[in-house]
Amino acid sequence: MSRMPRPVRSAISARSTAQTEPRPDVSLIRASAINMSFGGLAALADVTFELEKGDSIGLVGANGSGKTTLLNVLSGIYQPQAGSLTVGDVSVLGRAPWQIAALGIGRTFQHPALPENLTVAEAAMLGADRNGKSSLISYAFGLPFINGQERSLRTAALGALELVGLLDFRDVRLRELPYGLLKKVDLARALAGSPAVVLLDEPAAGLNDDERESLVNVLHEVRDGLGLGLVVVEHSLEWIRRLCPRVVALSAGQVVFVGDVDSFAQHSSAEAIFALDRSAYEP
Prior knowledge:
Elements: H1 6-18, E1 28-38, E2 41-52, E3 56-61, H2 67-74, E4 82-87, E5 90-91, H3 97-102, E6 105-107, H4 120-128, H5 136-140, H6 148-164, H7 179-192, E7 197-201, H8 209-226, E8 229-233, H9 237-243, E9 246-251, E10 254-260, H10 261-265, H11 268-274
Parallel strand pairs: 3-8, 3-9, 6-7, 7-8
Antiparallel strand pairs: 1-2, 1-4, 4-5, 9-10
Helix pairs in contact: 1-6, 1-8, 4-6, 4-7, 6-7
């Protein structure tokens, strides 16, 4: 039997450090009849889908179809006007983003907005602090660690940085990094909180071919080595199919397809979203 890559083994060890409080088993995320409107315009309409533990789903759709809005609902940034959302058997509607993160839901953003004065390690530590109980001031401004909890946060952050290949950059300021590495820092921040599921909003956007290949390899290790669930928003169906066996497709805020990626490639909505030559995606 082949050995698990060292970064994954280190991350597994760090995950036990980050899990400081009990949380429900994230065996299932269930969104049911989610409705979200802005100024009377429907952004999501009766959206329903489920994510099993360790599952990976590609969330696809044209620009403006509701993909990022749905991630914002799942992570607590938006509160829908109707519907239900559960993590395990816990209803999470009305909970703050940090409370949902503490239940095991990590999140990355299409455009990372981390304070540029932080070092890479400090930025990852922000994600490790799932419960919001430690003093962020001490490491955000370079002060000495004040307690054992902050030392444990750093351990979790360094484990996540090793997993994404940024351990050697841990003392570099974010303002000194190119965009491609900032995207990986944002992923490390999400992983440092020891999530069971990570929501990824266009993780490969703005990356060159080498950076995209490196990122998909990291996400394979995250998915397979740590058993994490993934919800991936991405505009490349080929990139989606390398990570996600299933697809949820949105159009004008409504779910128009749920199923395996090969079946989706033959679906009418796929041609509209990706301008596909369907023959290139025959199973």
